Amino acid sequence: MSADLPTDMVVGILDDALDRLTGRTEYLRELDAAVGDGDLGITVGRGAAAVREALRTATPADLEGVLITAASAFSRANPSTMAALVGTGLLAAAKGVAPGVLFSPALVPDILRAVYDRIAERGKADLGDKTVLDAIAPSIVAAANVAPGTLLAAMIDAAQSGLDATTNLPGRRGRAGWVGERGVGHPDPGAAFYVELLRAIAAAAESSAEPN
Fold it and tell me: What is d(CA 81, CA 65) in angstroms, rounded to the nearest whole number?
């Protein structure tokens, strides 16, 4: 990804990525069951399916439309905390994108900062609290400091490092916070979800670039 992408191509990549992501729902369920109520896999599966259907039906014309459509569909698909956080994060990102703008790798840091800030505000969380924020934050830094052609690979490596860095910490927010010290040694499910999403997007983007 090194230039602006037509919205139909972005939607196609997201459709493929979310389909791939559903193959990781059992993994996410197991991670969540170790420190929470085990519903993350369900949240991700239902949310991914809802976003895919909404993007096909709504046919958004620009990046703002894609973000708003995805936010609404994901949040409405589940009555869970993660669904609400994802939805409000994406809506915050959409507010920073002007109508008519197409996706560009240069926009990724600002999109992620908006998502990060809204999730931090709503979830009352910060770095080191062992949440999805610990994976998002380093990926923002990576996205702002690499060439477009290596964007996703750098973001994945950075997000995985953030996930790994908090694995041996106790959870401090949500149901993981109730588990406390018993969560030490278990990866944070929300951070793992973000890493898996990036991996799915990278695989879908690579597939879309392959000659037919």
Answer: 23
Tokens of 51: 């976003």
Question: What is the rounded CA–CA span in Å between residue 96 and residue 71?
Answer: 14
The model's pTM? 0.94
Interatomic CA distance for residues 19 and 138, integer angstroms: 26
Query: Which pLDDT score, from 0 to 100, does residue 210 have?
Result: 76
Q: Could you tell me what percentage of the chain is helix, strand and coil, using 3-state DSSP and rounding each to the nearest 5? A: 75, 0, 25
pLDDT for 174? 58
Q: Which of 17, 5, 27, 23 is nearest to 156 (CA)?
A: 17
In this predicted structure, what is the pLDDT of residue 179?
58
Report which of 73, 12, 4 is spatially closest to residue 205, judged by C-alpha positions: 12
Confidence of residue 177 (pLDDT cuts 50, 70, 90): low
Q: Which of 90, 116, 99, 92 is nearest to 191 (CA)?
A: 116
**Exposure string (b/e) for 104-119, b if CB count within 10 Å is 16 or more?**
ebebbbebbbbbbebb
| pLDDT tier for residue 170 given thresholds of 50, 70 and 90 | confident
For residues 132 and 39, what is the distance between their CA atoms, to the nearest angstrom?
16
Q: What is the mean pLDDT of the chain?
A: 92
Distance (Å, whole) CA 184 – CA 37: 17
Name the amino acid, one letter, at 147.
Answer: A
C-alpha to C-alpha distance for 107 and 5, rounded to whole angstroms: 12
